[in-house]
Amino acid sequence: MILSTPGPSSAFLAATKPSSPFPRVSKLFFLAPSHSLSSRFRSTARRSTAFPGVLSSLNLHAMAELVQDKEVFASAEADSSKKKNRTRSRSFLDAATEQELLSGISKEAEAGKLPSNVAAGMKELYQNYKTAVLQSGIPNAHETVLENMAVALDLIFLDVEDPFIFSPYHKALRKPLDYYDFGQKYIRPLIDFRNSYVGNVNIFNEIQEKLQQGHNIVFISNHQTEADPAVIALLLETSSPHIAENLIYVAGDRVVTDPLCKPFSMGRNLICVYSKKHMNDDPEHSEEKRKANIRSLKEMALLLRGGSQVIWIAPSGGRDRPDPLSGEWFPAHFDASSVDNMRRLAEHSGAPGHVYPLALLCYDIMPPPPQVEREIGERRVISFHGVGLSVAPEISFSEVTAASENPEEAKEVYTEALYKSVTEQYNVLKSAVHGKRGLGASTPTVSLSQPWN
């Protein structure tokens, strides 16, 4: 998704530039997309629920943790329900079999508590997730599906009953229940780690050092699936765990309005914006969306002023799609204005800023619809597959644009340099994962490894 506001004016940049440096904060952030109108962006206190742990493979120790997590989850929701003077349904958390879980969806739909389209989506999600996890060959795959989906369906239902409202800057919900951990455990069984790779771990280490020194980092990246944040975090959790947990994603509105997606978004740090691709879906609200994006831009500027922030943005404005004729996947082209927005914000933050090109290959596990859809509620196709992530050295605006004759040309030249790097890295990952070359696909500029081994 994309930060699709107009380029910040010099007056805005001057207003957000600190007269004296703020204290450096040792947190890292990632931005993700948001979809709501201003009412959906306002700050609000939600019931204190986050995710319980879910298993990717079951053993006695893991089962004990799961039982404890579900008890904590149920207790927290019970406390919340008491405050609201209503009884929380346990149709999903108490389900002991697949039949009971699916019957719970039908039961809540028949009671008028679940819209028919959401109920249908939940059933389809269950079946597709089950098929994918069974492909993985992990031990106790059926139990993993049941436990992960019981929590996922309960959280979806909870949000339908009491919708969560995302603020312009949303911090991941980690207590008393951990939504981040839920998302990790849900996506983990979908990744074939034997055929997954990380490019240039040494540069991620370099980035970590810069963050510890108070510098800001911006990742300019392609975007492939709704699961991108979990994929990135899972690939980095061994070598760069602090980055994995604290990235901030610039997020489009669809991932914070779709009932089947919201619980996963709640476990990520997000800057919520309206994607340029959907800005004029409803012309009556276009101006309101632009104003909401300006508010999110200001939130981002405040974060950057504190230093030690790491932000992810996909300046294409949405997920990559395959070529309609060849069927080949490739990174969608970047919007130069969005790239320039991020560069200028980083430069005017008062802390040193760095821009890195990041490539992501993971469309197989959860590909988007073939075309961009206006309506919320897309089908979720899910598979078990290898994935890849790579970062290249920082690209300096002043060095790349030294020969440019005007600002507009400089924007285009810089954007193209970033896009070229992302595409080159993507092709290496593609050769490793789809071409089955593995670590042998490494090049002089992209060194592949499997940090989890």
TrEMBL record:
It catalyses: sn-glycerol 3-phosphate + an acyl-CoA = a 1-acyl-sn-glycero-3-phosphate + CoA. It is found in: Plastid, Chloroplast stroma. Keywords: Acyltransferase, Chloroplast, Lipid biosynthesis, Lipid metabolism, Phospholipid biosynthesis, Phospholipid metabolism, Plastid, Transferase, Transit peptide. It is an enzyme of class 2 (transferase). The keyword Lyase does not apply. The keyword Disulfide bond does not apply. Residues 217-363 form the Phospholipid/glycerol acyltransferase domain. Its EC number is 2.3.1.15. Its main location: plastid. SMART domains: PlsC. SUPFAM superfamilies: Glycerol-3-phosphate (1)-acyltransferase (SSF69593). InterPro entries: G3P_O-acylTrfase_chlp, G3P_O-acylTrfase_N, GPAT_N_sf, Plipid/glycerol_acylTrfase. Pathway: Lipid metabolism; Phospholipid metabolism; CDP-diacylglycerol biosynthesis; CDP-diacylglycerol from sn-glycerol 3-phosphate: step 1/3. Belongs to the GPAT/DAPAT family. Esterifies acyl-group from acyl-ACP to the sn-1 position of glycerol-3-phosphate. The enzyme from chilling-resistant plants discriminates against non-fluid palmitic acid and selects oleic acid whereas the enzyme from sensitive plants accepts both fatty acids. This is Glycerol-3-phosphate acyltransferase, chloroplastic. It comes from Salix suchowensis. The lineage of its organism: Eukaryota, Viridiplantae, Streptophyta, Embryophyta, Tracheophyta.
